From TrEMBL, chain A:
It is an enzyme of class 2 (transferase). It catalyses: L-cysteinyl-[protein] + (2E,6E)-farnesyl diphosphate = S-(2E,6E)-farnesyl-L-cysteinyl-[protein] + diphosphate; geranylgeranyl diphosphate + L-cysteinyl-[protein] = S-geranylgeranyl-L-cysteinyl-[protein] + diphosphate. Pfam families: PPTA. It comes from Arabidopsis suecica (Swedish thale-cress). Its cofactor is Mg(2+). This is Protein farnesyltransferase/geranylgeranyltransferase type-1 subunit alpha. Belongs to the protein prenyltransferase subunit alpha family. InterPro entries: Prenyl_trans_a. One of its GO terms (cellular component) is protein farnesyltransferase complex.
From TrEMBL, chain B:
This is Geranylgeranyl transferase type-2 subunit beta. Belongs to the protein prenyltransferase subunit beta family. GO terms for molecular function: metal ion binding; Rab geranylgeranyltransferase activity. Residues 6-304 form the Prenyltransferase alpha-alpha toroid domain. It is an enzyme of class 2 (transferase). The lineage of its organism: Eukaryota, Viridiplantae, Streptophyta, Embryophyta, Tracheophyta. It comes from Arabidopsis suecica.
Amino acid sequence: MDFDETVPLSQRSEWADVVPLTQDDGPNPVVPIAYKEEFRETMDYFRAIYFSDERSPRALRLTEETLRLNSGNYTVWHFRRLVLEALNHDLFEELEFIERIAEDNSKNYQLWHHRRWVAEKLGPDVAGRELEFTRRVLSLDAKHYHAWSHRQWTLRALGGWEDELDYCHELLEADVFNNSAWNQRYYVITRSPLLGGLEAMRESEVSYTIKAILANPANESSWRYLKALYKDDKESWISDSSVSSVCLNVLSRTDCFHGFALSTLLDLLCDGLRPTNEHKDSVRALANEEPDTNLAILVCTILGRVDPIRANYWAWRKSKITVAAM
Amino acid sequence: MADKLVADKHLRYILNLMAEKKKESFESVVMDHLRMNGAYWGLTTLSLLDKLGSVSEDEVVSWVMTCQHESGGFAGNTGHDPHVLYTLSAVQILALFDKLNILDVEKVSNYIAGLQNEDGSFSGDIWGEVDTRFSYIAICCLSILKCLDKINVKKAVDYIVSCKNLDGGFGCSPGAESHAGQIFCCVGALAITGNLHRVDKDLLGWWLCERQDYESGGLNGRPEKLPDVCYSWWVLSSLIMIDRVHWIEKAKLVKFILDSQDMDNGGISDRPSYTVDIFHTYFGVAGLSLLEYPGVKTIDPAYALPVHVINRILFTK
């Protein structure tokens, strides 16, 4: 950076020819924003070049100063794009600029949209760089919604699918409860041009997910992912023994939350799974209630007890069970 | 621990924010470009507490109009660029004061309609960012202005449905992770256009009620995230629109919101014992409205405006 941030703009010779424009709020503005002096001055100078539409190198530098003070200011980002285009500025440098701003605060829509605008212009050559950038952001916050959105866009628009499933695995190793990583995993297996699609991937993914479930049975994400693998294929969902087995396995344990195993078993029963004696015994072992109740109804009763904050939901599920779903 | 809504303190908090010019705070600095949103949050909260009369209607309305661009869209503040985010807030503010009649409806609605893309999605402004948030904003705004016929509603709805995930939720774009904020936007847009049948209400209702944390009673926005008062709005309004709100434990959620108040200075924060801000103050009060808390007026879950305001719009002209 080649400007001295401690010297006010009004005292810099470079800006001597510019008359800063103050904000016209009117006499009694609504929700008036009280300004720190530096911010106010920088905005006044920005306003001047914005209204005179000056698309010069110093204007570019001024937008950087302004964005450092407030990276959420969308008008400044817009104007910066106009200046970048007018100057035909090096967009690789712009990627670096965005990364510098992101260091302070990466949770704003404007920064990410600007990044996408730049990356789109640079094309598939920067696929790797965009994946690397989002990886860095995700290493600080693995559930960063903007970063995931940008990463999905990058794969779709620029490519780079090769290592994505491995990356998901890496994140899940670090935190198996990372719902974003599970979502990305689904994104990859259903959309990657390098893999065979959901059905082709199902067996390996079921195996992967079951391992994750057994390691942490109280994980909402892994159970949902398991079900998603059987999208539109109810037959396979109820007939694949590994699905009901994992439920039984978890239910037989005394050291963990049973809620997701029970709700998954409930879904299977309602979808037509014919319960074996093993299923019945497993559930009845958890019941304080009458043992000859309809199994699905019994599961709902137990759920109302182990997941009490959702008692109304489980009561509703119970009310929907017909005798046929025994 | 709190056992009641300290409405008077919140009123004072909001009016102070709106009146004081010389306050030095980080919050005021970063809010400059989204003042229109801040005004909507503050004014709607006042309206829900039946205190909208505490501010000068003329001053608010004339300031709002200074933010309108020649394109018809509104900016976040005077001298900023237009964007649908601030256009909706501006229209909502005018609706609060029953001043929609001062708008050149043709101009505003053309601005929004012009932002619909080929695939039915909406951009936020001329720079082309696409997000289901903007689908909601466009539909909500045009509905208030009674100009929904200016867009291709079928395509808009189909695009939103393409963002539906297998858990029943919706993300910002096709394949994006389900997130309560995005779900509110998608469900709201579908509700306003009469397309709630495109939602799997039972499945989504379950996903939404799973957001409630047993310990605190608060709601989070995605699995394994922390509860936050703003989800009292996003999750709750979605549940109400799909008629499944009885699946959450209301009393515990009320307690979570009340415990997030600053009992001395007013305002509500994202969770108990944190710093308050106008955003969470609005969502906390709006959430309490949805929970039928006494003394708070009823809010419409789809339009995010008091019901009496929406009724005024829908039942006139």
